[in-house]
Design brief:
This protein is α+β, with helices and mostly antiparallel strands and 146 residues long. It has helices spanning 4-15, 21-32, 39-49, 55-67, 110-123, 139-145; strands spanning 37-38, 71-75, 83-87, 94-98, 104-107, 133-136. Bound molecules: zinc ion (ZN) (2 copies).
Length: 146
């Protein structure tokens, strides 16, 4: 499987853009993280590696990758709250978010893929994409309360 840096580089080349060192550092940090990261987290870690990285470079890089479909942005709170980013690799997955400790559990749901497929066929929609977030109290937090 191609890594995120390589996939973005290929897409950029196709568009006549290029992979800058700052972009590479940001993507490497995102790829190495095995969890979801906010733009601020990404900025702090990328900036430690390359002080030329600014928060606006991070946002621009993330927007670019989102438009290329190579990075997913998730919202894990029902009100506002930051967006969480992760590489878009493999099958789409979904998230359970604990409303107390904010722990995130990823899960697959073929049923959702079927719904998307049906909509696509019935309405001629292209590039359809769905990600479900389910909120609740995780087992560890439930035990702590009682
Ligand atoms: Zn919890
Ligand atoms: Zn995820």
């Amino acid at each position: 499987m191609d890594d995120l840096v390589q996939r973005v580089k290929t897409a950029l080349t196709r568009m006549g853009g290029r992979m800058t060192h700052q972009r590479r550092v940001i993507l490497e940090v995102l790829e190495e993280s095995d969890t979801h990261m906010t733009a601020k987290d990404l900025y702090l870690r990328a900036h430690a590696r390359d002080p030329r990285v600014t928060l606006s470079t991070v946002y621009r890089t993330l927007d670019l990758c989102k438009s290329l479909g190579l990075v997913h942005a998730r919202r894990f709170s029902r009100s506002s709250g930051p967006e969480w980013y992760e590489p878009a690799v493999g099958e789409e997955h979904h998230h359970f978010v604990c409303i107390q400790c904010h722990r995130v559990i990823e899960f697959d749901a073929p049923e959702i893929a079927q719904i998307v497929q049906r909509l696509t066929e019935e309405h001629g929609i292209t590039k359809a994409h769905a990600s479900l977030s389910i909120y609740g109290v995780c087992a560890a937090c439930s035990r702590r309360v009682r």
